[in-house]
Structure formats: structure tokens, C-alpha cells
Amino acid sequence: MTTVGVLGATGAVGQRFVQLLDDHGEFDLSVVTASPSSAGDSYREAANWGLDTPIPEETADLTVRATDPGAIPDDTDLLFSALPSDVGAAVEPELCEAGFVVSSNASNERRADDVPLVIPEVNADHLDLIDVQRDQRGWDGALVKNPNCSTITMVPTLAALDEFGLERVHVSTLQAVSGAGYSGVTSMEILDNVVPHIGGEEEKMETESRKLLGEFTGTEVDDHDAVVSASCNRVPTLDGHLENVFVETRDDPAPEDVAAALADAPTLDLPSAPDPLIEVFEDPERPQPRLDRMRGDGMAIAAGGIQTTDTGIQYNCLAHNTIRGAAGASILNGELLARDGWL
Amino acid sequence: MTTVGVLGATGAVGQRFVQLLDDHGEFDLSVVTASPSSAGDSYREAANWGLDTPIPEETADLTVRATDPGAIPDDTDLLFSALPSDVGAAVEPELCEAGFVVSSNASNERRADDVPLVIPEVNADHLDLIDVQRDQRGWDGALVKNPNCSTITMVPTLAALDEFGLERVHVSTLQAVSGAGYSGVTSMEILDNVVPHIGGEEEKMETESRKLLGEFTGTEVDDHDAVVSASCNRVPTLDGHLENVFVETRDDPAPEDVAAALADAPTLDLPSAPDPLIEVFEDPERPQPRLDRMRGDGMAIAAGGIQTTDTGIQYNCLAHNTIRGAAGASILNGELLARDGWL
Amino acid sequence: MTTVGVLGATGAVGQRFVQLLDDHGEFDLSVVTASPSSAGDSYREAANWGLDTPIPEETADLTVRATDPGAIPDDTDLLFSALPSDVGAAVEPELCEAGFVVSSNASNERRADDVPLVIPEVNADHLDLIDVQRDQRGWDGALVKNPNCSTITMVPTLAALDEFGLERVHVSTLQAVSGAGYSGVTSMEILDNVVPHIGGEEEKMETESRKLLGEFTGTEVDDHDAVVSASCNRVPTLDGHLENVFVETRDDPAPEDVAAALADAPTLDLPSAPDPLIEVFEDPERPQPRLDRMRGDGMAIAAGGIQTTDTGIQYNCLAHNTIRGAAGASILNGELLARDGWL
Amino acid sequence: MTTVGVLGATGAVGQRFVQLLDDHGEFDLSVVTASPSSAGDSYREAANWGLDTPIPEETADLTVRATDPGAIPDDTDLLFSALPSDVGAAVEPELCEAGFVVSSNASNERRADDVPLVIPEVNADHLDLIDVQRDQRGWDGALVKNPNCSTITMVPTLAALDEFGLERVHVSTLQAVSGAGYSGVTSMEILDNVVPHIGGEEEKMETESRKLLGEFTGTEVDDHDAVVSASCNRVPTLDGHLENVFVETRDDPAPEDVAAALADAPTLDLPSAPDPLIEVFEDPERPQPRLDRMRGDGMAIAAGGIQTTDTGIQYNCLAHNTIRGAAGASILNGELLARDGWL
After folding, report:
1. What number of CA atoms fall less than 13 Å from residue B200's CA on the CB side?
2. Can you tell me which residues the record assigns to a coiled coil (chains A, B, C, D) (predicted)?
3. C263 close to C328: Cβ distance less than 8 angstroms
4. Which residue in chain D is spatially nearest to A237 when comparing CA positions?
5. Nearest partner of D295 among D332, D336, D324, judged by Cα
6. Are residues B162 and B286 in the same domain?
7. At a CB cut-off of 8 Å and minimum separation 6, what does A249 contact?
8. Which helix (H) or strand (E) holds D246?
């Protein structure tokens, strides 16, 4: 078994990590950290457990540690980071310097030239950027990132459609409140309402997509040429980001070609990797967040509403934002790190 | 005073007509119709009044009539139609043949060559198609349509931006449940959910927009050249359609030019016409359905989130779907018909 | 294996039966019925599957039968009824006369003197009313009922507290929309709203509770003396009925005595029976519908907020209304029927 | 005109005060205070205006002052307090000592023997406690409180029913999220959920009700004898508290007697006082929060679902929690203070 820890384990994403790591076949969760005020408490006390499955008993009994290199046992093989980005920016480099491998969901350094930004089914080869990273930063450890939740939802579909020549992407998102964390969206903001703006989200989708779809040359990643314009909305759903995607393509594929390309997207043989990666629906009313966010145990992308336009195609896609879009994404990256011998 | 009636007065849109016509300065509501089973009842009994203002007392005491030319007094100057499209398709032509002028929200015949599809602030001149219509159909009456609620929300903004050369439009809608009528969306469909499809809606936005923005030659309307691709979603809001619009333009306007063009859109001097037509917000989190749907008493368009892209501009717009998008739209068309001497 | 069927298998409760019977260790689902218009279709076609787990493949391939004694194979050991009460009233007696044993969720005949109304953990002995029933009606089959969803939520707690001398019950319910079926509550009725009335529900709670808590004398059930007054509300939750209960008791138990009585409620060794029957929370903010409705796989009762008053006690209880409150309740009754040799 | 100020004017209740005081016929709002960090800003800048009507322009241009006796002009006739209770506890006595009359919605000191807790239509005579207060505390000013929002909703109905001999009250509340302030309830807590506990609320209902219904002897208030047991729930509605009330009465009134007693509750001739005070609905599905919270411009109580039980009566009542239940309540108390010559 690989010994793992979760940094920032008491927040909304941290709890999702703890839930997903319970009974994981390869990872043994033995370290949970939180802010200094919680250090020393049991996880049961420190976490105000808010998921709809019971708190995992073994983790509940762990003592919460400070999020600090000195507080984490040296033999912890892999750390998952659910830290806020400002804390991540401060602590993750220290941990990597101290020799830890960190698979992080925090947004800091996602765009850094020597930090791999990875969705295993899309760009597993970018992991080799770790060599460049270690070289440049003198680290024994490593820092690997997964993209933002709204980006992850779309990019596997774009990767599957790149064979038709991606040229231009317009995307509107309908994002669930859990993406903002437990207290990120108040009830008075969102009941009977939509908020048509999520700070920084549009830029993340535009830049992270191009890096993920880019080509790793051996020393760096060349961004994909396609321009992405995003419009991001918060809607009154709990979990599951739905996205309307319009893609202008070089070729002129028929809807059935598009459906086939999505349905046949390559999958990986990793514990958390879904098969198929993308579930394609014929019913134009699907996918829907509540009905389809748990496809593939929350790790699959659901797609539907495929149509052609005069300049390309349009379709909808959906993923569970705190599983495939956050905690599950980091865990899958961790499984890839383990398989490829980086731990 | 102009004597008016409402066809289909007991449904969700019909009730909105009744609410808006209460205390209207120029229109006197004296006729309400419904399905044969309600004919003879008082409106109070027939309508299961569901709006959050009390039922207007004078209308409550009216006796409901059948939706039938023979049941409507000849001296009714103007009829508003809140009929379902299949009923409208059967009854509206009969009424026009019998000499009534009908301002209709029903979707039947919106695309007919000789039926004016009108938003007064956008294409008031299309009303002259009535001469063509009377000529071709031999009617003494007239049939005028307002567009679909999702189309009305966007088209005033597109009209204001046409000075920059509209070439291509991508739009995603986040539509309120009231757009589907009182029983159109069940609670189990929409709580904690989004439905990414509204039957026929995308096609309506694509075709109606081009007709509205088209040029009236004196005998027909030449559709605008811009291609519109729409993706329509139902979200858990009660009223107010929010739309994310991406426009490719010939010119390259700055955001402040776009804002000025929207804010300066021409207004009309009609009782229900808002001034300004378009309220422009600087705060990127606005407009929001719950906070902004009642701007201009529900008749204004709210816009915000203006940004430029590499090929044009993107922004959000919002309107109250059962006021500006349905009942209020027909009433405004009725006011235009009165002003221009068609009654 | 016991061969079972589901009557009315395409509705909201019918689908829940199909979901729960998938992979049931003792029951093999081989018959699904629906209205005549669906007979002959595959279940996949006939059901517009609306649950958030995939449709069970084996059931999906079954051919839907008419809800009619002649259409159901004689060797079907047990029928579960998810029929509307008017259809149940017409068909269930015919089926029982034809020799079938029917475990029914439909509300018809729940109050009939010779029809057992059963929650296995509360009044399993009432099942012996079947002898009376067969005697009086000349049936080879049998008809057994589970109570209404709002009643099931409360009665196991009342049974556990009867040791303190139940004298008077006031209860307010906060009921989920799924209790009204897929189309029972429209979105316009319930978004940003509460409906403080559910037709017939209050009377069901008042009469069914007393029968369930009553004593079976060998020939009939003597209702419990305690008077129940209920006030029933529909709230914007999907699943899970929450109830505020005020009980006047003969004795004067301390809160910890109440908690212990609830936590120690007897359980049964049946496949669907949860253990514990009642999960007691110390946190006064629990139970909550979304977080706690799936306790015991949706079959447990959750309780909390225990306080004493000057005349007795008050507390909250919660159960999943379409599992413990409907389909799961009938299945549990079926398991009891099987164990006790009635099939 | 009476010159008034609002303490804590930028919060959710503070904004409601500002909205309601716009165009008030007798009160001229000229002072707004907030926390020190906002002092010196315009109200437009300091308030993140969140109501669905535009910010009143005159108030928007006021300069925000610190909530401090020294910062408030001496000639301010009346101060409304929308302060949090801890701030209210610190500042309100200072202001009263400095000679200001404060009509406060804050919960501090509501139970103090010499502080009038007033609903004008219920216990206007309790205002004479001010003489006792001034005597005991040596103040030139005065402190008057309105009760908690959930209490205000119920007490006018109890007062109207006291003629039948109130003996015991059980009440369950279904309270809107706005009652907790703008950020009090997160979206993740309440979407598809109910929270069956509101800290301190049950005790407030139990004690405040008895004081409001109590008798003023000239020197003190003797609490009413009736015991109140409350169970308080937060539900996913924006505004409007709905309550299920069970009352045990000495007499045995028929439902029509109850309806008449409620409908005939005495009203007052004050600018914000509704007439009737209590609107009684025959339809058992009414009142509903979204449809009925704005009755009487948000100041009326709506009641319905009247039934008799073996020990008394049960019914539902509803009021707008931030108008009748908070800001409007304080303003109405202010109007009473003005009428009775206390300013």
C-alpha cells in the first residue's frame, strides 16, 4: 500500500478526498492536516462532516496535524492538496523541497512552465515535466496539478474531438455551488437566481485548456492554438457542472462521427479511471446534473445534445465538480504517479 | 379607452396579461376567454390565480367566454392571445377573418411571410406587413406576433450592436421555469438540476432573430445575414431568462463602445415602453434574474459582463420572460397598433 | 428464490421498487405491469427512468404486462403494488381472489378491519389478520398494506416511546416533493415556497398511527388511545420527510431516557431491515433530509433534537419517503410475509 | 417631518429599513451608520445593495457614519437599530443615555423588565414602561424593542384568539433564509434540505410571546400563563416565515368563530399598519410564503388552514420576516412612539 495524506482535509474538497480514499485499494490514508487551530484534534472533531455518507471511522480517529513539512511523517509517499490557493502557494513548494510528492487541486502554479497540469486520460505524458521541474528547482519531491473543475469537464471532450481540427471554442458553464466551497455561495445569492460571473474562472478555462491540449516537447509544453472564450455562471445545483460547448472545427464531422469520437475516447487502467471515459446520451435532455453526475462513480464525463452548426459542432458536457473536477482528479493523478514510478 | 380582451386568460401567461392590464391607462379589459369547460364561470372561479399580487377585482367578476368569434362582442377593439400554439393556429385566423385585430404571444405563424413579428423598439416598421397580410388573406382584422421569450431577451441587444456589423452569434440561455407554463416543469425535474434542452426553443431563437433584425422592403422581410446558434437550458429560477451571448463582429469595438451602444438604444413613447430600453451594469455579477428581472417594471432588458474577445464581444442579457418576454410584449405591440392607427 | 412482480412499475414509486429489487438476495423480479397502453413494450421503453442510478439491465429487458390477474403468471409468489389508490382499489382484490399475495403501498383499504397495516419492526403480529381476511373474503391470496410515508416516519419512534405512556401527539411535517409522484408538485408551486396542505395526509397520519400502534386481539386491532393531530407541509426538498413531533406522556422521562428508548428500538433480521432501526443524533441540527435520508440504505429512521417540555417531550424524526416510506416498506413487508410462511 | 436614522444600515435588515423608509410620509431618513470601516464612504459604496428594487437615490448619497453617539446629530428624533445583538447591547444604552430614542430590532434586552417589547396592534399600552425605564436608568432617551421575526408572525393571531382562553401552544416554524441575514445560511446547507434547528429561536418564541401577551400593571408586565413550545426549522425559501400552530383553548370555538376572531383583529391608524391586520384564507393551501408574504405591503399576517381538534384549534400563519418581522416592525413602533408623543 502507498501511504498518503490529505492537506486541508477539513474543507469541502478535503472531505471529498477523505470519502474517496476510504477503502481505496492502493492508497492508505494516514495523514490529515488542517489549519493550526485544529491541529491536535481528532479529525472527527475538526471536520464538521457535511457529506451524505457517514464519516469514515478510521479517518475520524486520526489526529489532525498542522499543514507543515515538519508535522508530516517522512515516509508519507504521496500528499494530496485540498488547500486554498494562497496557502498552497506558500506550503506546497516547501513540501516538495522537503522531498514530498504533492498531487494538488489548488490553483496556484497551474500555469507555471515546469509544473505538469494533468488529466491522465488526456495528457499523461506531460508528467515528464517533473524532470524539468526537479532540475530547475532542485527538488527531491514533485508538484503535479489537476486543472480547475470547469476545465476538466470540457477538456476530455475537446481532446476527443481534436481529430476534427479544433479551431475555436465558445463555452457557457452552469456550475454547482459546491465548486465555491462550503460557504462560498450564500443561499440568498442563489435561491431563485443565477450569478453570471465566477471570479477568475473564465480565464482559467481559457488558459488551462490550451496547456492541457498542448504538446509536450520533452522540455516544455506548447499550448494548443485553439482560442477558448468562456462565460461562467453559478446556478442553484449542489454538484455537477454542466457546460454548453460550441466548437468550430477544420473538418465537417456528422453528429454520429462526433458521438463516436466521444464514446471511443481512450481510457486508462487505473483504479479511479472510468470506462468509458465519456458517456454519450442520445436523449437531448441528458446529461443532467442530478441524474448523471455520478456516472462512473463521479469520474466519467457525460455528453449529449450533439448537433452540427454551419461552422462546426455544439454539444453539452457534464462532470461531478468535486469528484472528477477536484478530489477525484488529484487522486487519479496520484494513481498515475504511482503507476509511472514517480513515488 | 380601447376595449380589449384576453384569449386564454386563465393560464400562466393569461394571468400575467390580466395583471398587467389592471389599471392600464389606455386599455379597458372587458373580455376574457378560456376553454369551453370554463365558459360561463366567473374569472375568479375559472382562474386558479397564482401570481403574488391579488387578483384584479373587476376582472375577477367578468364571466369567462368561449374562445370563439361568436362569443366575443364585435366592438372589442383588440384581442391579446395567450393561447397554446395549436389552439392559436385554429382560432386566430378565424378571429382575424371576423374582423378582430389580434396581438398574439402564441408561436403559430410567427415565421409566416405576411405576419409581422415585432418588438416595437426594434422593428416597428414591420407592422406595415399588415397591408400585405390583408391583401393576401382578405382579412378585415389583423394578426401580429411577438417573438419567443428567449428571443426577445437577446434581440434588442443585437439590434443595438448591429452598427458594429453582426456576423455570427453563439448564445446559451438559462431560462426560468415560468416559461414552460404553470405545469410545464415538475419540481422533480428541476430541483438541484438543470435540463439542457427546451423543445423547439433553439430553432425559434435562430429563425426569429433573423426575421426581427431583417429589413422590411415594403412587401416582405429580408432576414438578417447573421447566423445564430443557440443552446437552451432550463434552470431552477422562477422568472427571468439570462443569456450568455458571444457575437462575432465586423468591427472591433471596445467594451465601452459596446456599453454605450446598448445604453443608448432608442426608446419609444408608449405606456409600457421602458426608458432606458437596456440597463447596462458595470458590476460583472449583474444582471441576475431575481434582482434585475423587474427593471423597467419587467419591460427593460438588463445587460452586463461586457468583454471583448479575439473575434468580437461577449456579454450577458436578461429580461422578465412572462412580462417583456410574453404578456408585456403583446401589450406593447397592442399599444403600437393603437398609436399607428391599426385599430 | 421467491418470484416477485411489481404492479405499476413505471411510476416514481414503481421505479424505486425496481431499483431496490435489483440484486435483492431473496426476491427475483420477473414481472412488471403498467397501464394497458404500455403493455407489450419493454420496461426500458415504458419507463422514463428518472432515478440517479442506471436502470437495472435485466428488468429493462422485461416485457411490460397489463395490470390484470390474467396477465400475471400463476407462479408469481408475491406482488408489490405501486398502483394509484383508485387502480389499487379495483385490481388488488381481484388479484387476491385469484390467489396472489399482494404487499401494497397503495392507500386503498389501509383502514379496513381485516387488512393488516404493518411496519415489521412495530407490529409484525398484525400479519395474523390475514387469517381473518381469508376467512371473511374467501381469498386464497392476501392483501397487506404499509402505511403512508409520513406515518411511517413517525410511528417507529412513537412505538419506542410508548413505554412512557403516549397520551397526545402534535406533529408538523416537512415533506419532500417525491411523495407526490413524479408530476405531483410543479416547480412553480414549490420554488421559493412552502405549501401548507397535502390533501388527505393529515387524516392518514391520525388514523393510521393509531391502528399501527394498536393491539391485535386475535380477531381485530384495537386502536391506540393517543390522539394525533397533524399539520402537513410540502417543502422544496427532493426526498426525505422531516417531522417535528410533540408528545404528551404519562411519565416524565429525561431527554437521555428518550434517546435511549429510541436508540434501543428492536430490530428484525430481515434483508431490508436496518440496524439500528432509529439513529439518534446529539447535534440538534440533525437529522437533515439531504444528509440523513440514506441512513440504513434509506430504511432507517433518524431522530434528534430531543427536549423535554412541561407536558412531555419534543423531537424531530426523518425517513426516506420513497424507500422506508413506500417501496422499501412494501418490500420489508414482503420479507416478513416470506419469513412467516405466508407465501 | 421626523428626522430618523438607521443604525447598522448596510446589512440585510438595514437595507430593508432603507427601502421601507424611502418616501415614508412622516419620517425623513438622514442618518445611516455602519461599522467603523465603512464610515466616511457613501451609502452607495458601503452597502452592497441586495434588494430587488433599486437603491433609493437620496440615501445612496448619504455619508455613512460610525455607530457612535458622538457621530449622530443631536437633532435626530428617532433611531432605528438593525444592529447585531452584541453591538446593540454595547451601543444602544449609550445612545439612550445620550438622549436618543431607539426603536430596535436587535435581540438584546428584549426580556429586560423595563424595556417595552411591542407589537402596536397587540400591546401598544406596554409603551408606558418607558416611564419606568427612564426612572430606573436615568435616561433622557428610550429603548423600545420589537420581538423576533418568528414571534411576530404568531403573536397577533394568539392575541386575537385569547378571547377563547389560550392555555397551551405548540408551534412549528418553517423559516426563510433571509431571517439569518445575508450570509447566515449557505447554499450548501439549504438546497434540497431543511435544517431543523435555529439557535436560540425556540426560547425566543417561548418567552417573548408570553411577555407580549402579558398585562401591563402600570409598573411591570405580568407574563401570560399560556406555555409555548416551539420547534423551529430553516427551509429553502427567501422571505416569509410560515408557522403551524396548535392551540389548546379553554373554550371550544367552531372554525368559523376562529376565522372571525382573526379577521376582526383590531387595527391601528398608523402609516405602516395594515388593514386588515390578519388576512384569513379559506383555501387550505394558503397562505404560502411566495404568494402571500407581501399582503398589506409585507405588514399583514396571513392565516389559513383553520381546523378544530379535540383540545382546541390548529391553523397556519405567515408574515414577511424582514418587513413585519424586522424592519417594518421597528418602523411601526417608531410611528407609535411618534403618535403617542414620546419623541
Report:
1. 7
2. none
3. no
4. D191
5. D324
6. yes
7. A161, A164, A165, A166, A167, A311, A312, A313
8. strand D241-249
B/D interface, count of CB pairs below 8 Å = 19
Taking an 8 Å cut-off on Cβ atoms, the answer to whether D194 and C174 are in contact is: yes
Which range (A333-342, C50-59, C85-94, C184-193) has the least confidence?
C50-59
Q: Which residues of A249-281 are buried (b: 16+ CB within 10 A; e: fewer)?
A: beeebeeebbbebbeebebbebebbbebbbbbb
- What is the domain-level CATH number for residue A21? 3.40.50.720
Q: What is the 3-state secondary structure (H, E, C) of A30-65?
A: EEEEECHHHCCCEHHHHCCCCCCCCCCHHHHCCECE
User: How many helices and strands (H and E) does chain D possess?
Assistant: 12, 14
- Crossing angle of helices B328-339/B12-21, nearest 10°? 50
Chain C neighbors of D242, CB-CB under 8 A: 194, 196, 233
- Subunit partners of chain B (3 or more CB pairs within 8 A): A, C, D
CA D217 to chain centre: 24
In this structure, are B83 and B213 located in the same domain? no
Per the document, the length of chain A is: 343
B199 and B335 fall within a common domain: no
Element (H, E) at D143: strand D142-145
Residue A123 CA to its chain's centroid (Å):
13
Pair C101, C76: CB distance under 8 Å: no
D332, D120 Cβ separation under 8 angstroms:
yes
CA distance A142 to A137: 10
Residue B334 sits in the same domain as residue B248: no
Q: Which three cell numbers stand for residue A194?
A: 443565477
Cell of C99: 390467489
Q: Three-class SS of residue D99?
A: coil
Q: Please determine, for the modelled complex, whether the ipTM score is greater than 0.85.
A: yes
**Cell output for B235:** 434552470
Indicate the burial class of A243 (C-beta count within 10 angstroms; 0-12, 13-18, 19 or more). Answer: buried
Report pTM.
Answer: 0.96
Interface test with A, best of B231, B241, B245, B311 (most A CBs within 10 A): B231
Residues of D belonging to the active site: 149, 241
pLDDT in tens, D299-342: 999 999 999 999 999 999 999 999 999 999 999 999 999 999 99
* pLDDT value at residue A15: 96
CB D231 to CB C246 under 8 A?
yes
> pLDDT at residue A48 above 90?
no
Residue type, D109: E
Same domain? D170 vs D308: yes
Q: What is the rounded CA–CA span in Å between residue C274 and residue C319?
A: 12
Q: Mark whether B131 and B177 lie in a shared domain.
A: no
| Domains held by chain B: number | 2
Lookup: cell for C18? 425496481
How far are the Cα atoms of B16, B287, B291, D11, D24 from residue B294, in angstroms, in the given order?
14, 11, 8, 22, 22
Cell numbers 444604552 label which residue?
Answer: D93
Same-domain status, D198 and D273: yes
Catalytic residue set of B:
149, 241
Q: What residues contact residue C38 under an 8 Å CB cut-off, 6+ apart?
A: C10, C46, C64
pLDDT tens string D144-156: 999 999 999 999 9
Same domain, C247 and C332: no
User: Is B236 an interface residue toward C (CB < 8 Å)?
Assistant: yes
Check which CATH number belongs to the domain holding A229 and give it.
3.30.360.10
Q: Which residues constitute the domain of residue A192?
A: 149-320
CA distance B209 to B117: 10
